[in-house]
Amino acid sequence: MPPSIDPLLTAFWKTLTEEVGGKFLSGPDARRDAEDLSHQLTEGRGHLKPNYLNSPQRLGAYAAAYMPMNFQKTLLLLRAHKPIMGPAWLDFGCGPGTAILAALAYAAETKQPMPREIHLVESQTAPRTLAMRMVRTYARHLNLMLPTVREWQRIPTRPPGGLSIAFAASVLNELPDGRPLERLWSDVSGTFLIIEPGHRVSSQKLIRLRERLRQEKAYILGPCTHEGHCPLLRTKHWCHFSEPVEDEQLINMNQTLFGDNRPWLKFSYLFLSRTPQPPRDQQYRAIGDLHLSGPGMVAIDLCAPDNKKPIKFPRTAPPELLDALVRGSLVTLSAHKVDSVNEVSHLNYPDAPAWQRKNHRT
What we know:
By secondary structure, the chain is of the alpha/beta class. Helices cover 33% and strands 22% of the residues.
């Protein structure tokens, strides 16, 4: 595989190879195990045993198929929202330590100080043991001085001053309900990043959790630009995003395991803060794709309290505007006119009309 351009990714792949094994992609059963786990984590959820990652085959499949994607999703969202990491970090349902590795990468990149303590919470022994090794090895490759790292089967007692940042990546998808995350939020004094796969069931669970946490002094960093009711609550729709994969090693791995290069990171997320956010009255998140809307017109849906806010444009609008209007874009409006669009992704599809691009991002 060619080396990654991003040194944080280079160190990640080196760590994964050292701790999981250099042949974790090429074993004869790797593709079968990855496809089986993918099915079990989505449509076959009810068939998973409580300690499913204690199986070496399943843990290897998870490390190969999910850890690189989740690492890159977490790092992408940290870079987008720029939190202050603070002195006490916790990764709930940490698996092999994915979110904390991304947190170490982001702290190193932004030159933020290492925390006083890191907590890895995982009910299954094998992934928790792997997480401890991964965190230590990755920190060594980044030349970071690690603080105290503790492993737990359950959420520990709240540290003095609370948790400065907490993570829960692909956890709500595995829980009967969101109560453990509500319990964890009570221990957070800073920020809390929850990331889920971009499919309908877990995304709708996340929307319902958002509504409950609104009552618990949770202010929203993203993706929402408002604190009101989610317009997708109790509808057939769900809030999800797609971002392009730039890491060739991840694309090659997806091709090996799934027979598909899967060039998009697809996810839903909720980033919460204890600190009230400045007013964003004229800023909206695009939660749909550009689509046909009557003769000669295209439209995109924006997220607003209680209801989606559609805005329309002629198909002859400037190409640079239509190129920027994608799911996840931040759109600034004044008097129903677009003042600016901050496109989350920098990729364009010049060969496809803008109103046909939804197939690339859903």
